[in-house]
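Saturday, quiet lab. Running sequence design on the structure tokens for the scaffold JK sent over.
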């Protein structure tokens, strides 16, 4: 069953390619008419499989390695820091991680750290999640939600044992931002996405809300604004600003509900995209 929901800050808790040199050597041996041994045939087959996977991921690529440092604010209070990392693995897929740590007055109430870990791939220029895990460290009660995305079977397999159909274009809480970096909604058209929290499958609709110059901790940046469509009064409002000159990097994420505003603002980035307060 798909749940329709407009709450929870998406992606956050509450308050490399393999070298082709070996493959080239195998092809060189074959071109000179030397018979391939069974071992070489296995090696050639493996190389072709790797090549085929990488070829399927052609098109727009995510900037890696990447480290994004956000500050988390609740109203006027700074309550935490969020660090998100993205790296590419030897097989061409990506691994992403997010760590949320309480800060300031929030540490008076909790020292729990929230973690998200996942793997994804880019197929035909679009992000496709493979695995998502959310867990927390330092809590009295366990919290561990995991989802495996079996695209060949068209199923999501949860750690709880629940198996659900996997709709086309599904993302998880961690992969959503990277999906928007490659394919944000376009003007005049909304984008309906299924999002897995690691426990449930939720459905949201997003739309392009125009462009604006945004003053941030890293300077004044041209952005594209993406809104989540609010269906009824009282639903949580969600807005994200993507830096159009920086691969649609998310520089601000804002939610509003019951008169309270929660904001994630990018303070610095390192790796493939590097900037910070010194570039104001």
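Result came back. Writing it out in full:
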């Amino acid at each position: 069953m798909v749940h329709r929901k407009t709450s929870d800050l998406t992606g956050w808790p509450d308050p490399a390619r393999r070298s082709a040199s070996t493959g080239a050597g195998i092809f060189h041996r074959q071109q000179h008419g030397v018979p391939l041994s069974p071992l070489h045939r296995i090696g050639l087959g493996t190389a072709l499989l790797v090549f085929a996977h990488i070829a399927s991921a052609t098109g727009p690529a995510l900037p890696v390695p990447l480290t994004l440092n956000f500050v988390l604010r609740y109203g006027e209070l700074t309550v935490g820091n969020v660090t998100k990392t993205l790296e590419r693995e030897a097989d061409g897929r990506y691994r992403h991680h997010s760590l949320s740590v309480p800060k300031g007055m929030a540490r008076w109430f909790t020292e729990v750290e929230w973690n998200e870990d996942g793997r994804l791939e880019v197929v035909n220029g679009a992000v496709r999640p493979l695995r998502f895990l959310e867990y927390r460290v330092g809590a009295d009660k366990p919290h561990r939600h995991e989802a495996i995305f079996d695209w060949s079977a068209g199923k999501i397999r949860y750690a709880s044992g629940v198996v659900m159909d996997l709709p086309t274009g599904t993302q998880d809480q961690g992969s959503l931002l990277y999906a928007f970096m490659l394919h944000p909604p376009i003007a005049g058209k909304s984008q309906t996405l299924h999002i897995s929290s690691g426990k449930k499958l939720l459905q949201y609709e997003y739309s392009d809300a125009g462009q604006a110059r945004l003053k941030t901790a890293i300077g004044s940046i041209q952005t594209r604004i993406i809104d989540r469509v609010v269906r009824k009064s009282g639903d949580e409002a969600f807005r994200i600003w993507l830096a159009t000159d920086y691969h649609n990097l998310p520089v601000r994420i804002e939610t509003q509900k019951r008169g309270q505003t929660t904001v994630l603002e990018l303070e610095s980035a390192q790796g493939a995209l590097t900037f910070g307060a010194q570039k104001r």
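Notes for JK: DSSP finds three helices and 16 strands in the chain. Residues 135 and 170 are 21 Å apart (CA to CA). Ask whether to fix the surface positions before the next round.
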